[in-house]
Amino acid sequence: MPKKGESRKYPRYEVNAYVDYTGSEVLLYHKVQNISLGGICIQSPTVEDLGTLVDLVINFPDLDTSIAVKGEVVWTNREPPQDMGIRYLGLDDRRLETLRKYIQTIGK
Q1: Domains (ranges, CATH) in the chain?
Q2: Partner of 86 for a Cys bridge, out of 6, 57, 71, 105, CB 3.0 to 4.6 A?
């Protein structure tokens, strides 16, 4: 888990959204704790190991769209609320722009 007071490259925003991901198994409709341009924190009953590569589908209901991205698990919390931090890998310009639009919408 990130340390308190640790500076981040991208600010994180708490959201009321859900994500589907495929890692060691396919898990659908999991709560997004927070999101940024660099990664996402999701709550899940199955927490992956550090370094696990996952495929995410992030739904943006406010924009009526979704994006599919690859990510890497960079921190985990196996105690309640059982969540993990995932860093995006290879986010192209189109997906980054969709993410940026969503963050602008929720960051107001």
Answers
A1: 13-106 (2.40.10.220)
A2: 71
pLDDT at 72 over 90: yes
**Which residues face 60 on adjacent strands?**
65
CA–CA distances in Å: residue 57 to residues 22, 69, 83: 9, 6, 17
The DSSP element (H or E) to which 103 belongs, if any, is helix 93-106
With 70 as the cut, is the pLDDT of residue 92 above it?
yes
Residue 44 has which token pair?
């899940």
What phi, psi does 48 have (nearest 5°)?
-75, 165
Over 50: is that where the pLDDT of 76 sits?
yes
Q: Is 64 exposed, middle or buried (0-12, 13-18, 19+ CB in 10 A)?
A: exposed
